[in-house]
Design goal:
By secondary structure, the protein is an all-beta fold. The chain is built from no helices and eight strands.
Length: about 100
Amino acid sequence: FYLVIESSIDAEGLIELTDWIGAFKDGVCVGSWPWVGEYTTIPVMGDDGEDWSEGYLLSGEIPTFKIYDGSAAEVYPAVPSEDHSWANFAFYILDNINVYQSR
C-alpha cells in the first residue's frame, strides 16, 4: 500500500471522490483509489503467479503513477515525492504525488 499525504495537479489540490490516483507497471493499472484526502491509501498489486495477475509488479520494481482529473476527464502522468520499490505486504508513506504541467 502507498499512503499519500498530499496530491495536486499544477499546485491545485485534488477533489475528494472525483479525482483518482492510479499505480501502473508498463501501462497496466495495478491499483487505484479515489482521492479521499490526507493519507489516501492506494492498494498496489503484485504478480502472484496466477494468470489474472500476469504483468503486475514483482518485488523490487517501482510503480509509476497517474492522476485522473475527474472534472476535466483527463489522465496525467504524476511524480511521487519518493520512489519505493514494491514488496508484498509493504506500506509506504509518500509526502505527495503531483502532476506538473503547463496549461
